[in-house]
Amino acid sequence: MNDLLRSLKLNILHVGHAKLDHHWNYSDVISPFMRLFYITKGTAVMNHTNQLFVLKPDYMYLVPSYIYNSYSCEEYHEQYYLSFFEEIEPGLSVANLKQLRFEVKANASDVLYFNRLMTLNPDLEIKNSTPKPQIRKVLTQKDKKANISFASSNYLETQGIISVLLSRFIMQRDHVVLEGGDYRDLNKVLIYIAKNLNSPITVEKLSKYCGLSADHFSRSFIKKFGMRPVHYIQSRRIARAQLLLLSTQDSLKQIAEDVGFKNAAYFSRIFKQITGNTPASYRKTHFNL
Known about the structure:
This is AraC family transcriptional regulator. The protein is α+β, with helices and mostly antiparallel strands.
């Protein structure tokens, strides 16, 4: 699995330190980028992945991309924050391959890392802590790397520091434990799916691509990923649709076709089944100010 990690791409979006009070109170936030908080004073609470996290000093917290989350602060807390895009090969995330923990005890070097990131990236502080303007600003950038205009040495050091901080949340055991010949086959099928979301993808086509029988492929996929291939494909299509809904003005019909749904009504039904919202409601809630 580490061979895929070598293709990890990181793109910093925001970094800074904030003093927050009861106005830091938002629900049903979903971002197409990862967020990392290091609490230095006070407390707050956060919900995601069906878990409640009490944010406390000297701990760091990770929020994966495309995960609904809510957070609130009753009185006051201070935090370092970092948000970044991460991608392994086209369309894959670290979370696809590795088990993640979402809370870790900070160590003495972590505060130094955050301060160094702020020194290297002095113009990436969030001016408005309200989530929707942050997300809209990021997604309407013509180029995600538009904010990276500094020297190559700064860029490389920034990549290194983010890698170190992210590594603290990656468990040693792979999210997908692969044995034998299926290792390479199931690795490459994830990449194939990510690259071909706009085209018809069937279990038969995937099994042939891997050189396995349909039954063997399906059993292996369920064992390794914990879900049927068709459900995985749908989840990746809906994640891609979420990004398009936030970053483009394309019609729902066009977006449905772009992510492999030829029937707009079926696209809406699957979208609501996975996200709890219709595509139109999702766009209105998360894009419009």
